[in-house]
Amino acid sequence: MVLEVHNLHKQFKGKEILRGVDLTVGAGEVVVIIGPSGSGKTTLLRSLNFLEHADRGQLQLKDQQIDLAKPTKQQVQWVRRHTAMVFQNYNLFKNKTALQNIAEGLIYGQGMARQKAEGVARAALDKLGLADQADAYPAELSGGQQQRIGIARATVLHPEVILFDEPTSALDPELVGTVLNDMQALAKQGQPMVVVTHQMWFARNVASRVVFFADGRVVEEGAPADLFAHPKEERTRHFLNSLAENY
Amino acid sequence: MKTSKIITTLLAGLPTTLTLLVAAFSLATLLGIGLAWLNLRANPLARGLARLYLGLVRGTPPLLMLLLAYYGLPVLLKTVGINIDHWTRLTFGILGLTIGWSAYLSEAFRSAYLAVDPGQLEAARASGISDRHAFWRIIVPQAALLALPNIENLLIGLTKATSLVYVIGLYDLYNQATNLSNQTAGVDQLKIFTILALGYWGLVLLIEAGFRQIKKRTAKRIA
User: Is the pLDDT of residue B8 over 90?
Assistant: First the structure.
């Protein structure tokens, strides 16, 4: 297992958001989490790299076993250096160019020499066909370009797992394809990922495993073909039936 | 009176005006950063202290602040055994303006800091970048740019407020003009003050041009 979460609990002001979540990600696995808005999917993702602090739970990442409720500063930093995240609103550093955005984590997160890091960043932009935007600031880029750079920023770190928090939700419809394309390419290279998304196409076609999440817990999970065609739980059936593509 | 005589007389006050402006604004910037930092602490004592200072200082007219600095501060400090009677008027002038503008600037810095999208700090953390690096490389540069319009306003305000130092007997642009006008019993008053006004306008136009350049070059980094 690359990542294993056990019995994750989280409250916000007395309201239970996560009610004992178990989740595993194996080598090369793409785990896609689907479910209604407000069910805690994003909080779950953000608890894994301590952008939220869980009340209870165990995290195993590589060989490290970490108490999610009481991590040491070193453990927080270690987890963040071995994972990466892609955000709904891209969250690119606005005062940095595309190239600098990709290089920043390599230099200041992993201690790579600046010149080498910029070389890696340039190669990543080349691969995306965005080499001519290397010196552009985020404000000069489209949402799709920003998100693709956000993905490159995460990928170059070679993390154990990349966490995607609704990466296409803020995009114009015609830009969604390019971003999903990058993610699919990444999946094919065997990069372990956890993806929270409303893009059912991605869940059906790229996921190794789909997790249906509702009311702060995993309702059921399985291979996409099984889960979409033969959901076991009533809650899952109800959710899948209400999707726009089924109308 | 010849225009050239008026101009040369007023120009004799320019070094004082510029010294006040540059020194007070620089010191107020440093003090303002410290105050903003205190005000953003979670510690209620630190925040309380900063807010007390802001409340008192912002509620004091700049003219009164200069008078208090010049007449009040030496008396106050003498009670704790510190003698500052030998300080120059210019020092007191700088001090009075520094105290006032530190409060205004600290609010400009604080609001700019809070205006930087917190998602970028999260992105930095998620990339394994330490909070310290994120602060200096991502947050501060953007906060500085976001604060620019307020900083510009405050610098222009201070340019004009330097004219208040006549109350403690400093000969800046403004006091030179008043002095010259009094020498001729007010006959050339309008001419002198028109030239004086042009002088302040010139200074302010220079400041505006400078800030326009900075904003033009950096606009893309905060949009």
Answer: yes
Q: What is the pLDDT of residues B88-127, one digit of tens each?
A: 999 999 999 999 999 999 999 999 999 999 999 999 999 9
Q: What percent of chain A has pLDDT over 70?
A: 98
- Give dist(CA A35, CA B214) in Å, integer: 47
Say what the pLDDT of residue A246 is: 64
Question: How much is the average pLDDT of A79-93?
Answer: 96
- Rounded Cα distance between B74 and B67, Å, is 11
3-state secondary structure labels for all residues of B27-67: HHHHHHHHHHHHHCCCCHHHHHHHHHHHHHHHCCCHHHHHH
Q: Are B128 and A80 in contact (CB under 8 A)?
A: yes
Contacts of B166 (CB under 8 A, 6+ apart): B172, B174, B175, B178
CA trace torsion B152, B158, B163, B169 (10° rounding): -150
- Would you list the domain boundaries of chain B? 3-221
| B131: closest CA of chain A, how far (Å) | 10
The class level of CATH for A3-92+163-246 reads alpha beta
CA–CA dist A194, A4 (Å, integer): 12
Asked if the Cβ–Cβ distance from A137 to B137 is below 8 Å, we say no
| Model confidence band, residue B223 (pLDDT cutoffs 50, 70, 90) | confident
Sort out which chain B residues have CB atoms less than 8 A from A93's CB and list them.
120, 123-124, 137-138
Q: At what angle do helices A114-128 and A143-155 cross, to 10 degrees?
A: 130
For an interface test with B, give the residue of A45, A74, A108 to mutate (most B CBs within 10 A).
A108
Q: Which of chain B's residues have a Cβ under 8 Å away from the Cβ of A82?
A: 128
Nearest to B105 by CA among B142, B63, B143, B48: B143
Q: Indicate the CATH number of B3-221 among 2.60.40.10, 3.30.870.10, 1.10.3720.10, 3.90.1750.20.
A: 1.10.3720.10
ipTM field: 0.94
